[in-house]
Amino acid sequence: MAVALTMSSLYAPTLKEDPSEAEVTSHRLLLRAGMVRKVAAGIYTFLPLAWRSIRKIEQIVREEMDAIGSQELMLPIVQPAELWHESGRWDLYGPELARLQDRNGRYFCLGPTHEEIVTALIRDEVRSYRDLPLSLYQINMKFRDEARPRFGLLRGREFIMKDAYSFHATQASLQEHYDAQAGAYSRICERLGLDYRPVQADSGQIGGEVTTEFMALAESGEAALVYCDCGWAANVEAAETVVPRSPGVTKPQPLVKVHTPGIRTIAELADFLGTSGHDTVKTMAGKTAEGRLVYFCIPGDRELNAIKAEWAVPGVTLLDEDDFAAFGIPKGSLGPVDPPADTLVVADKSLEDEVAWGVGANQNDYHLLGAIPGRDFEVELWADLVLAQPGDACPVCGGTLKGTRGIEVSQVFQLGTRYSEPMGATFTAEDGSEQPLIMGCYGVGITRSLAAVIEQYNDENGIRWPVAVAPLEVAVVPLSVGEDVVYPVAEQIWRELASAGVEVVLDDRDERAGVKFADADLIGWPYQVVVGKKGVAAGVVEVKTRATGERVEVSIEEAAAMVAVMVRAARG
């Protein structure tokens, strides 16, 4: 027999009004439907309905992980600082890493991820290539001290995550398992009912050079994406950018200094000069870890991608307020002509064929027109520096890119030896040599996936759960209770559905019909069996499909069997 609950016994405190703290649809509906309650910023209690859905998501993930040979274990959330010092991430990870001391003064952290601790585990156990490949996964709580937790479960500090780690003797073996994990992640998204897209991404604080994000498409998503009809897609922060260029100046010109009083933005400059932002070049300033000044020159109508800037110049950071004075440069009107001595000039590769540039003169209220690379200044490095955007050319087929937004629900990484080398995790290869383990890691945001499903499956009345992750599959709604006409019929259908293996709840509350209908739609039961006096008198009940709003009348005798068939078909 499947789960059979009653609304009177179910802890699901629904709300009639939208909470003021709710920022996005999933946050609002999770609160209103009695599924989560806020404990502190970015930290939530999961009430029974949400927990049932979370467990279903976890089960889907477990089935897909087990199917590719990954083995489940459990690692501690509290991790010793020594391991993070070994990997070099104790200081690198920054303030998002929650650090603490025990009573003996020993430092620990709350794990935002588990590369260090799993590498330490394996280095003490795996000795030979014969023990490889090995793939391990866990589902547990993580903690990242986000500076601005927001959007409910989409950007929390405490969250549930599935993280897997694989260990290999060869790159070919890693690639094979990486592809298997990516395939499993696609199947997970499909089983959750998500409209998703795998995209090229940046590996961030995890490390490694090869990574793919799986994005659930949603306007509420924090990530901006670009994609092409050929199938290529990427996060704008990681996308290779092919900037369309149609310069207004096609012949060399003399260098001219122009007084531009009060001009602070590219739009103001273009208007002042009677040209477009496309024909100007703006310069952003940064500094290397060694303190060298760096000028990044990009098309005036584009935005500098800080991630790409660091790819071009490892360790670079953009200047803060105090740095401008320290370097003796103005905050505005920067340019590559006559910069301070030893300045590294890096320019976006889209400018490489530009004949002449309009640039800042390194003096407030002045700009230079006709600046020519090689004649008036030198570019030391050409690189892809700008954020991709819709309208750019596809780097694969040359087509025009389109834009959308997405919620990152999962990501796969090829780590290589990023952790094994500094932490001394080695194995004896077939030729007898000692080699560092080659690693991959793979994460699924369980609670974020829950929110992503709701972002995609909702309407003005509430949640429209896919059956695969709904807290319960069917609600039986008697329009009256405590009498011998309607309620016995509802109770009998409820029992028959449970006997047929359906997860079902009986709304046995002594409430008005309108309250029951509103709660049923708010919570989002996929199927609702409505039992009323007129219907019972005619020998029928009404079956409503939440996803479509379709309603059909079914005989009382056939109702449970018919709904059970619908549920089994929808489970997939």
Please, could you describe this protein's structure?
- It is built from 14 helices and 32 strands.
- With 572 residues, it is an alpha+beta fold.
- The strands form eight sheets. Strands 4, 8, 9, 10, 11, 12, 13, 22 and 25 form a nine-stranded mixed sheet that branches. A six-stranded mixed sheet has the order 1-29-28-30-31-32, with helices on both faces. A five-stranded mixed sheet has the order 17-15-16-18-21, covered by helices on one side.
- Helix 2 crosses helix 10 and helix 11 (486-499) packs parallel to helix 14.
- The protein is globular.
- It starts with a strand and ends with a helix.
Q: Give the mean pLDDT.
A: 93
Number of helices: 14
* Weakly predicted, low-confidence segments: none
The CATH class label of the largest domain is Alpha Beta
CATH third-level topology of the largest domain: BirA Bifunctional Protein, domain 2
Structural class computed from helices and strand pairing: alpha+beta
Q: How would you sum up the major sheet?
A: 9 strands, mixed
The count of domains is 3
In angstroms, what is the radius of gyration? 29 Å
The count of strands amounts to 32
The CATH superfamily name of the largest domain is Bira Bifunctional Protein, Domain 2
**N-to-C span:** 20 Å
Give the CA-based shape.
globular
What is the name of the CATH architecture of the largest domain? 2-Layer Sandwich
- Residue fraction in strands: 25-35%
Helicity range: 25-40%
Please tag this protein with its features.
6-stranded mixed beta sheet; 14 helices; 32 strands; 28% strand; 9-stranded mixed beta sheet; Rossmann fold; YbaK protein; BirA Bifunctional Protein, domain 2; alpha+beta
